[in-house]
Design brief:
- The complex is a heterodimer.
- The longest helix of chain A has 20 residues.
- Chain A starts with a strand and ends with a helix.
- A seven-stranded antiparallel β-sheet of chain A has the order 6-7-16-17-18-14-21. Chain A has a six-stranded parallel β-sheet with strand order 1-9-3-2-13-22. Chain A has a three-stranded mixed β-sheet with strand order 4-20-19, covered by helices on one side.
- By secondary structure, chain A is α/β, with parallel strands linked by helices.
- In chain A, helix 1 runs parallel beside helix 11 and helix 4 crosses helix 11.
- Chain A contains eleven helices and 22 strands.
- Chain B is mainly α.
- Classes of the chains: A alpha/beta, B mainly alpha.
- Chains A and B meet through helix 8, helix 9 and strand 21 of A and strand 2 and helix 2 of B.
Chain lengths: 467, 74
């Protein structure tokens, strides 16, 4: 049922309250209903309105400016899914293992396999899109990207909320949490259409899931409560730290004989060929994960004709021009962060300030990965790469992927939540979405967000069943 | 004596640091040839092409040839 205000019983009727209506929220609701009473809370309305945009306007420092973060933080039904381009890719086992400067995830790729398959089906993709990367020559792995029509969530929200056990409350912005004992969340502070923040009580048995993005989750978790300087859920002091994007750049031109590229896995559907550097070579060169997608055909460079003629004669094959599009991991750094500004929005929440800069290792990983891919393709007589060094170091931007601000890990010394996505020290507070990623890997995050939420939904279902 | 030794150590350190300085990517041979000969087999040339040295030399030779023909035509 669609609600525009809470009844006299407040939140008492619900087993689970999920804040958000995007890729991170809906899988949880889908798993828990119809056996459990679930409430989805959406700060915006069915479509994005100007007054909700004002809530996401943030100050920006570092590589990103001109409203980069706010443009990928949508307060409306379906959340930021409206900005999704439709690229689906799964993280590789190496992405989750960690390495120098990269924390390991507290779960492995094998733990996620079943959830990945479920998430792919939910996003309208075949299970083959979750196929792990496979070797292509000695130095490369092939890891194609699924690229098809993106799912838009408002229709799915309507389908989910048509069930008996689930309600959708719109135009209510959660701006903070209450907890008297610092072990249970016992209230939500919300601003509704009246624009007066009010606290709504919760009971100990009720579970709260924050699923409103890597900036939205932080905005709630950093709001200081009335009686303490320490925000509820930020006892680790790490909420907002380790903000990550995916560095995106066309890192090179590629002269390629397409028939010589590895075929897509059976039943993969529409997609792009893509490569990664094999793990031993990544370790040797101290590289962060980087996926290089073959896009095109593209316009040839002005001085490329002699090179094309030379290698067509050398390979004895026709070659065409393509672009190598790099999507890479950004090294997690505590200096890349989200903080509160003193001033408040009309809803009563503090505005945010983002600090995010790429490190030299981030950009060098793209450069070296592209060069190593060029060497490997040349050795296999499959392609010729022209490195765009200037673009890599001066024009790398982001993919609108906001990750890592409430990462999961072992304890309060290294993370905000544990492997089940429960905030350390709290019994009934969970986090969902890309904010829990310890590292970003080299895959678009949508599939992983949905997979983690199916996993969290199953965990909550077992917990509520007393298993 | 101590001062002279300190000076020599500092000088040696400075020389070592200069010798270790990172080279620009386009000047760096990317794979050493077995036997230690200085000729690179792979080379990222100044235009960014990741191509073997022999192909680079052939392309440079053809470019030089084209430039020479152009001068003669004029």
């Amino acid at each position: 049922m669609h609600l525009t205000h809470l009844g006299p019983d407040g939140l008492a009727a619900y087993d689970v309250i999920i804040v958000g209506t995007s890729f991170a929220a809906l899988p949880i609701a889908q798993v828990l209903t119809p056996r459990r009473r679930v409430l989805l809370i959406e700060g915006g309305d069915m479509v994005e309105r100007d007054e909700m945009r004002a809530l996401t306007a943030s100050d920006e420092y570092g590589h990103f400016s001109d409203g980069h973060w706010a443009s990928h933080w949508i307060r409306a039904m379906g959340g930021t899914s409206s900005r999704w381009s439709g690229v689906v890719a799964a993280l590789e086992a190496a992405d989750l293992r960690g390495g120098p400067g990269r924390p390991a995830w507290p779960i492995s790729r094998a733990d996620l396999d079943a959830d990945y398959a479920r998430a792919a089906e939910w996003l309208g993709r075949p299970a083959a899109v979750c196929t792990p990367a496979s070797p292509f020559g000695e130095s490369l792995m092939t890891c194609p990207l699924s690229h098809d029509t993106p799912v838009r969530l408002p229709a799915q929200v309507s389908a989910v909320t048509s069930g008996d056990n689930i309600d959708l409350l719109t135009s209510h912005t959660v701006i903070g949490l209450g907890s008297d004992n610092r072990q249970q969340v016992d209230g939500l502070v919300m601003t509704g259409p009246s624009r007066m923040p009010a606290r709504v009580s919760l009971q100990a048995r009720q579970i709260v899931v924050l699923a409103c993005g890597a900036m939205g989750n932080v905005q709630i978790l950093l709001q200081p409560p009335d009686r303490s300087d320490v925000a509820v859920g930020n006892e680790s002091g790490l909420v907002g730290r380790f903000l990550m994007e995916h560095p995106h750049v066309v890192s090179g031109h590629l002269l390629v004989h397409r028939a010589g590229l590895p075929p897509m896995p059976a039943g993969f559907g529409p997609g792009l060929p893509a490569f990664r550097i094999a793990e031993p070579l990544m370790t040797r060169h101290d590289l962060l994960p980087c996926s290089l997608a073959v896009q095109g055909p593209v316009e040839p460079p002005s001085d490329g004709q002699p090179v094309k003629a030379h290698f067509e004669a050398s390979f004895g094959l026709p070659l065409e021009w393509a672009a190598l599009y790099a999507r890479a991991e950004q090294e997690p750094s505590a200096t890349n962060r989200v903080e509160l500004l003193p001033e408040r929005t009309w809803a009563g929440s503090h505005r945010l300030r983002m600090h995010c800069s790429f490190s030299s290792r981030d950009l060098r990983s793209i450069e070296v990965s592209t060069r190593l891919a060029g060497e490997a393709l040349m050795a296999m007589r499959a392609g010729v790469v022209r490195l765009h060094n200037r673009a890599i170091y001066r024009e790398t931007s982001g993919g609108g992927h906001t990750m890592g601000t409430t990462r999961m890990g072992v304890g309060r010394h290294d993370s905000v939540c544990d492997a089940t996505q429960r905030v350390h020290g709290y019994d009934n507070l969970y986090l969902a979405g890309s904010s829990v990623f310890p590292t970003g890997g080299a895959a678009n995050p949508t599939l992983t967000i949905a997979a983690l939420s199916f996993r969290l939904g199953e965990h909550l279902r077992r917990r509520l069943a007393g298993a | 004596v101590l001062r002279r030794r300190t000076f020599v150590v500092m000088l040696a350190g400075a020389v070592a640091a200069i010798r270790r300085r990172p080279m620009l990517a386009q000047d760096r041979p990317t794979r050493a040839v077995a036997g230690g000969t200085p000729t690179p087999t792979w080379f990222v040339d100044h235009d960014g092409w990741v191509i073997p040295g022999r192909d680079r030399e052939a392309l440079l030779a053809s470019r030089a040839g084209e430039a020479g023909r152009g001068a003669d035509d004029e």
